[in-house]
Amino acid sequence: MTTPTDSPADSFATAAARSAGLEAAIAADPARFRVLTGDRPTGPLHLGHLFGTLANRVRLQRAGVEVFVLVADYQVITDRDAAGDLPGAVTGLLLDQLAAGLDPAATTFFCHSAVPALNQLVLPFLSLVTVAELERNPTVKAEAAAAGDRPLSGLLLTYPVHQAADILSCGGNVVPVGRDQLPHLELTRTIVRRFTQRYGPLFSAPDALLGSAPTLLGTDGQKMGKSRGNAIALRDDEDTTAALLRRAVTDAERTITYEPGRRPAVANLVLLGALCRGEDPQAFADAVGSRGAAGLKSAVTEAVNEHLRPLRRRRAELAADPGAVLDVLRAGEERATAIAEATLDRVRTAMGMRYRAVA
Ligand code: TRP
Q1: Ligand 1 atom 13 nearest Cα
Q2: Which atom of ligand 1 lies nearest, measured to the CA of 166?
Q3: pLDDT at 10
């Protein structure tokens, strides 16, 4: 076997430039594109997700692009022993996305665990990458470091290859992701290139689509996270949101300004309010004026609760019929399975793994 070493790590700038060109191509001809993206079912989606990836998904769906949304249940156990209440987490994740505007008539939802053919693609793909390449992945390294003393599991080391299978099983060619996922996209492109060299052209290389919204921080001014207690969950009620924002980090200056460099925590709250109101951050800051931190917090609370009110109402309506949510998943899984099985079939043919005469 030849050792695959031809992996020039694309720079962020290259990926960003490709992403910008992609927007124009999608607008011109949405039918040429298929979006695949996903989330780990590890907790409630929050405002960072809404203004980042969720808004992108809904926009692409409305532009007429076919959207596949994966619930990455096998990725939950990359860095933990117990998956927790998966049925509850999966239903909650679906409800968050349906309430945000993803329409099951246009968007296919599915779980890893329901699509065996997807998971089988991981085996040939693993043969196309080296252990050294897997160990170099900066996102995996950061995740391993965040796990502290916990030894790196084989699943954490190889999950970027699993992500390549997620994307390629359904022929996804546009992947809306955050910057941290770019190394995984690059690995997927490498796998496509090597598969083509070895077995012939079957896959086309997907592109990352980077969100344009500025990154929101949590209410403590740190990275917003599902499990950090600093995120406004879409499904929270208005009082919970108000209480979280009352505890938000600010500073002692009376006049509210939008200065991300000098006043990051205040600027983040201003940005949050502005995104919710569809305003310029400067205009939002000016409207609060000299009412200080308390004035800012109440303005942001009002903006957030108002913006989320229709979503929360829809979510409550959908949650009243859990059977319907599971039906959405079942229909999506049937469709994803049919497509992944056809892909696996072509892969096995290309690899010479056909042992019976085809009738
Ligand atoms: N790892 C991604 C995240 O945590 C979720 C994910 C799984 C994904 N499979 C994917 C994203 C395939 C894009 C494409 O956000």
Answers
A1: 37
A2: 12
A3: 52
Distances (CA, A) of 349 to 41, 59, 90, 195: 34, 37, 34, 13
Give the model confidence (pLDDT) of 299-357 as tens digits.
999 999 999 999 999 999 999 999 999 999 999 999 999 999 999 999 999 999 988 77
pLDDT of residue 358: 60
b vs e for 24-41, b when ≥16 Cβ sit within 10 Å of the residue's Cβ? eebeeebeebbbbbbbbb
SS3 call for 73: helix
> How far apart (Å, rounded) are the C-alpha atoms in residues 233 and 325?
20
Residue type at 44?
Answer: P
3-state secondary structure of 115: coil
179 pLDDT band (50/70/90 cuts)? confident
Question: How far away, in angstroms, is 254 Cα from ligand 1 center?
Answer: 42
CA-closest residue to ligand 1 atom 2: 39
Residue 273, amino acid: G
pLDDT value at 205 more than 90: yes
Structure pTM? 0.92
Whether the CB-CB separation of 125 and 164 falls below 8 Å is answered with yes
Which residue stretches of the chain are H helix?
A: 12-28, 47-49, 55-62, 86-99, 116-120, 122-126, 131-136, 138-146, 154-169, 182-199, 238-246, 264-277, 281-288, 292-319, 322-350
Ligand 1: residue of 36, 69, 163, 209 to mutate (most ligand atoms within 8 A of CB) is: 163
Residue 234 near residue 99, CB atoms below 8 Å: yes
Question: How far is the centre of ligand 1, averaged over its atoms, from the C-alpha of 99 (Å)?
Answer: 20
Phi, psi of 287 (to 5 degrees): -65, -30
Mean pLDDT of the chain: 93
Mean pLDDT score, 82-96: 95
Residue 176 Cα to ligand 1 midpoint, Å, equals 9
Tell me the pairing of strands 66-71 and 34-39.
parallel
